[in-house]
Amino acid sequence: MWKILLLYLLSLFLALILLPASLVGGWWRWESREGIRPLDGAPAKYFPASEAWVRDLKIYCTVQKKMLDLPLEEYIAGVVAAEMPASFHPEALKAQAIIARTYALVKVRQGGCSKNPGADLCTGSTCCQAWEDIRTVAEKWPEKEASFYLERILNAVESTRGAVLMYREDLAQTVYHSTCGGETEAAAEAWSGGGDVPYLQSVECNFCRHSPHYTGEQEMDPASYAAALRKESGALPVLGEGNIPLMEVVSRSGSGRNMLLRIGNSGQLYRGEEIRRLLGLPSTYFRWQAEGDRIIFYTRGYGHGVGLCQYGADGMASQGYTFPEILQFYYRETEVRLLNDH
Ligand SMILES: [Zn+2]
Ligand SMILES: [Zn+2]
Question: 129: CA distance to ligand 2 center in Å?
């Protein structure tokens, strides 16, 4: 009994100590916190940081419709908060912090966001990467968990401060997605003209089975199916007798995703990604069946499937893998290094 009481008192004490004293009004400001050494225990291999990378980033906020000046690490904290559930394992959050940082620096080097001139990155998840002010995100967390989640995210960012993912002597292209559904996709197959990236190959992933998107079913009535496709296919019939979709897979990628599809009886081909967008499906990993007056899409995963699988990273971390191991699993032959003078 006394043990329970002691535990209770201890947790109460910890909660009081750990609860950021100023949880109300202006309680959070980015600053490097003492006592946390980046990549604690890992061999520090340095990569020279260019000057552009240590200045504040120009972030175009697509919600507030204005440009924000943010220090790199403050930006990364907002990306981790917006791109990955804070309930994920700390090692997965660290992997996310590193790939978000690497992705940002690659964008800076490429001349910034292609949609918003003058911005290094925007906060659109389909254009650059999602970002939200961590205070706004914290408001959505259950009150009980808020300080614990905040601490987790800040720790993931601080403990990897300045760490980036490298392939040979260059920054890696650290694209990522929510759930692969069993196997990730090679960049060369996902994106036409994307070229073959040695570390963005398809890997079998048995770690994302706990994702709500691992497999899915989406029902559509034939009229909405036809309307969605007709926007692109014009007057072509897209449904056959008995409302069977006139759609056929022309080619599949090595992982089984639909790369090219034919709609109607024409020779017109569509990329899997286009059909996914038109029909509002979670990925290009789908098949379908007409059942009665419905068309049912059976889907796997969520997102383009290239690079790191976020739910997979969480699954790996829960099985004891560390963040460098997680990163090396999804981006083969890469390594984590620290930026100089960061
Ligand atoms: Zn952008
Ligand atoms: Zn996966």
Answer: 19
In tens, the pLDDT along 15-60 reads 444 433 333 323 334 455 455 555 655 544 555 555 545 678 999 9
CA distance 239 to 245: 5
Buried b (16+ CB within 10 A) or exposed e, 170-188: ebbbbbbbbbbbbbbbbbb
Token digits of residue 246: 């006139």
Residue 326 Cα to ligand 2 midpoint, Å, equals 11
Annotate 26-55 with b (16+ C-beta within 10 A) or e (fewer): eebebeeeeeeebbeebeeeebebeeebee
Q: How many CB atoms lie within 10 A of CB 229?
A: 22
Predicted model pTM: 0.84
Q: Report how far ligand 2's centroid is from the alpha carbon of 263 (Å).
A: 29
Long-range contacts of 15-20 (CB under 8 A, 24+ apart): 15/147, 18/147, 18/148, 18/151, 19/147, 20/147, 20/150
Cα–Cα dist 198/173, whole Å: 11
Provide the residues around ligand 2 (an ion) whose CB is within 5 A. Answer: 180, 205, 208, 309, 312
12 CA from centroid of ligand 1 (Å): 44
Centre of ligand 1 to C-alpha 211, Å, is 27
Angle 170-176-177 from CA coordinates, rounded to 5°? 170
